[in-house]
Amino acid sequence: MPSVGCSAAIQVLPGDVVSRIAAGEVIERPAAVVKELIENSLDAGSKTITVDVKDGGLSLIRVTDDGEGIARSELLLAFERHATSKLRSDRDLASVTSMGFRGEALPSIASVSKVTVSTATGPDSIGAQATLIGGVPGPVRDVAPVRGTRIEVADLFFNQPARKKFLKSEATEFSHITHVVQQAGLAWPSVHFRMTHNGQEILNYPAAAESRDRILQVYRPVFIDRMMEIKGRVPGCAVYGVAVDPLHAKSGKQPQDLFVNRRPVKSATVFHAVMEGYGASLSKGRHPTFVLFLNIDSERIDVNVHPAKREVRFADSESIHRVVRHAVRHAIAGPERVSVLEAAPEREMVSMSDQAPAAPNFSARPPGPFVDPGGDAVVHSARSDEGAQLPLIREDAEPYKQPTAPEIVPLGQLLRRYLVVQVGQELHVIDQHTAHERVLYQRLLRQWERRAVASQPLLIPEPVELSPAHFALVDRYREDLAQLGLSIDPFGTSTVAIRAVPVGLGKIDAAAFTQDLLDDLAQWGRLPSLEGRAQPVLASLACHGAVRAGRAMGLPEIAQLVHDWVQEGLITTCPHGRRTAFRLSADELDKLFGRVGWA
Ligand code: ADP
Ligand code: MG
Q1: Rounded to whole angstroms, how far apart are CA atoms 577 and 247?
Q2: How far is the CA of 84 from the centre of ligand 1 (A)?
Q3: Contact status, residue 371 vs residue 413, Cβ threshold 8 Å
Q4: Of the residues 49, 61, 106, 111, which should be mutated to test ligand 1's pocket, given the most ligand atoms within 8 Å of the CB?
Q5: In this predicted model, what pLDDT tens digit does every residue of 249-301 receive, in sequence order?
C-alpha cells in the first residue's frame, strides 16, 4: 500500500503526469473533446465544421474544418502545454475575443488519447500530418494539401482506465456531444455544422442568416411559435433571443440556453433576472425556456474563471440583471401601444426603435414578396404544407359581435409573419401566429366552458410511440381528454394514435403535440381544478393548430383572421400579456408626421 505519510519527499511530478492531471479538468468526457475542437475550428475562422463520431465518441471523434490551418512548423508546438496563438501577454487576457486562449486543450486531449492531426494552410503546396499517442508525437508526414484542419481523436482514455470507467453509456455520452454541437450551432448561425454518428447523419445546419433561422434548425418550428422575442440594450451590453410565452410555459426546463459573447455558459445572475422578468405570469410548476444571447464588452467580463469556460464573471452584474429583467418583462407586458408621442420616457423611445427594425421594408420592398399574388385563401392553403385553412374556422354563434365593427382592410403580410392591416382608423401590424392562436384559444375555452367542444376525426390517425410511463399517463386521462375534443386511442402497449381533435384547428403535428400534451398531463396530478387542467391543454391545441410564422397568407385569409381577432375582442385585451399587435392610430400618425390639427 503506498504511503502518503509525512516521510515522503517532495518531488516535482513528471510532465506527462501533470498533463494527465490537468487534462482531467478540461477533458472529463467525449463531449468536452468535441467542444474544444469545435472552439479551435471556430477560432480558425472556419465556415464549415463536420463532426464525425463513433460509439458515443469513445472509439473516435473527428472534427474537420475549412479554417486557416496550422503551419507545418507549428504543428507539434500546438500540442505543447500553454502553446497558443491567441494570447501574447496577460494584458490580452482582459479582452479575450477568441474561444480558446489557455493553450491547454490540444495537449490535454493528446495526453489521454491517440490523436492524428492533418492540416494545410492557404499557401501550402503540401499538407502536414502527425500522430501523437498518449501525447508522445511521431514524425510529421506529408499529406494532400486540403486547406483546414482535421483532428481525429481515437481511443479516448485508453491510458486512463479509471476515468474510462466513469463514463456513462454510449447513448448518454453521445447525447452530451449532440448538446455541444447544438450549442455551438446556436451561437454561430453563419457557420455550417454537420454531425454523423456511426456513419449516420444526425445534424445538418446549413449556414443561416439570422439567429432566429438557426434556432429553427436546432429546435422545432413549434418551439419558435411559443416564444416571444427578447430585446434589450444598455451601453456595453445587449441581450436578444427568445423566451417562452408564459401561456406556453411547461413543466420541462429544456432549453435554457444562455450564450455570453457566444460562449454557452450558466449564470445564476441571468437566470434570476429571467425569473424576475416573468414574475407572477409564470404559474406554479411552470418553468421558463429560452435561448438568450448576451453581448458584453469583453473588458467587462472575465471568462477565465472556469477551466472549461462554462462560467463567466460580470464586472457589473447589477446592470446585466436589469437589462435582462427589463427585456423579458417588456416582451411579456410590453405596452400594447408604444408611446412614440406623449413625452415618452427615453427607455420607451429606445424600445420603439428596437421593436421596429423592419420598418424600412414597408416602403423599400415592392408589395410582391409579402402579398400573396394569387390572393385566394383556399387555393393558397392547399398549396402550403401547413394546411391551416383559416376560412374553415367558423362558429354558429358569435357572441362577441360588436355593434359597430370597425372596417378591416388587409394590406399585406410582412416577413411572412406579420399581417399589415387597417382596422378602423388605425394601422395594425399583427403577429399572425399569436393572433390566430389567441382566436383558437378563446373559442376552445368558450366551447369547453359549455362542455361542447366539437371534435373532428383525423383522416389518417398518426401513431406516436411512447415510454411506458407516458403511455400510462395518456391511458389514465383518456376520458378527460375526450371532454377537450381529443380522442386518443391506445394502440398495442406503447403506441397511441390521435384519432380526433377539436374542430377548426389546422393540421397538427401529432408527435410534437403529444410531447406538449405529456408535459401538460404530467401536471394534472397536482392540479385539482378542472380549469387548471383544461387550460394548458387548450393552449397547446391552439398553438399547434394555429397558422405558423413563416407561412405566406393571402389577403382574404388575412382579412378573415383579423376579423376573427377583432370579433373576439382581442384588440384591446391580451389575456396572457404577450404583445400580439402593434398599433398606430390616425392621431398618432398625424402627430408623427407633424400634421397636428389635420382633420
Ligand atoms: P488555445 O485554443 O487555447 O489556443 P489549444 O490547445 O486548443 O489552445 O490549441 C493550440 C493552438 O493550436 C491554437 O492556439 C491554434 O493556434 C492551433 N490550432 C488548434 N486547432 C486549430 C484548428 N482547427 N485550426 C487552426 N489552428 C488550430
Ligand atoms: Mg482551443
Answers
A1: 9
A2: 6
A3: yes
A4: 106
A5: 888 888 999 999 999 999 999 999 999 999 888 877 889 999 999 999 988 88
